[in-house]
Write a structure and sequence with these properties.
The protein is an alpha/beta fold and 250 residues long. The chain has a domain at 2-94 and 167-245: Rossmann fold (3-Layer(aba) Sandwich). Helices cover 36% and strands 27% of the residues. Helix 4 packs across helix 6 (149-161).
Length: 250
């Protein structure tokens, strides 16, 4: 069952045609990797899925982007509701300069959860799902900035989970991390897909091959090929895909 569907999706930044007629379906409870060289449109496409491009001046989007059958760019759709359902984790960990507890509780408080017992439950559950609870349960009142880079990124994942989204978008979530932290995030992503649909932008071919179920290859704003990951990496249909994943360019 698909959770996202795009039809004839085009995106312009001013005169720059950044996405060109992208037609794609993304399935529930799968990890979908977006790969391609820098500037190919993969991060732009990711940001289309939760309307993060709305804040960019001169950005024009045409075509359909549907989430659970709803046109997310429809005139009556509230972008804040979309972003609550479709969370995002960025390239560099960006915890708030407040306590570990308050980082996770921040969004639920903003959306109206006030009772301490309810917040305690959300914080613990989110940190457990982000595989961080055992490492921080004795220091929840300490600053989030005291955590290591990998822990900070898992905290950002917990912060996203706290709003109970349906989808988690990852924009190169391990590019600033060491190999051990990267492995933990990858293991976490595989675990999280039991409860969430995941779309991940990655420059790391091995990462896409290790953890994703489906892979989309973008080049110069076009979706060149989209298939099961094992097919993309073992028998791609397009010569450009093969050239990219074998390192001939990019």
């Amino acid at each position: 069952m698909s959770i996202f569907k795009t039809e004839n999706l085009n995106l312009h930044y001013g005169d720059n045609h950044a996405l060109i007629d992208v037609n794609m379906q993304i399935d529930c409870n799968e990890i979908t990797a977006l790969i391609g060289p820098s500037g190919c449109g993969k991060s732009t496409f990711l940001r289309v899925l939760n309307r993060m491009n709305d804040v960019i001046p001169n950005c024009k989007i045409t075509g359909l982007v549907s989430f659970n059958g709803m046109d997310i760019y429809g005139p009556k759709v509230d972008p804040m509701i979309i972003r609550k359902k479709i969370g995002m984790v960025f390239q560099k960990p960006n915890p708030f300069p407040i306590s570990i507890y308050d980082n996770v509780a921040y969004a639920p408080k903003y959306h109206g959860t006030r009772k301490k017992a309810a917040l305690d439950e959300i914080v613990e559950k989110s940190l457990r799902q982000a595989a961080l609870w055992d490492e921080v349960k004795e220091r929840l009142k300490k600053s989030a900035l005291s955590l290591s880079g990998g822990q900070q990124q898992r905290l950002c994942i917990a912060r996203t989970i706290a709003l109970n989204p349906e989808v988690i978008l990852f924009d190169e979530p391990t590019s600033a991390l060491d190999p051990i932290s990267t492995m933990k995030i990858e293991e976490l992503a595989v675990e999280l897909k039991k409860n969430y649909s995941i779309v991940i932008v990655t420059h790391n071919m091995q990462q896409a091959a290790r953890i994703s179920d489906y892979t989309a290859f973008f080049l110069l704003g076009e979706l060149i090929e989209y298939n099961k990951t094992k097919n993309i990496f073992s028998e791609p249909n397009d010569k450009r895909t093969e050239d990219y994943i074998t390192g001939r360019f990019g």
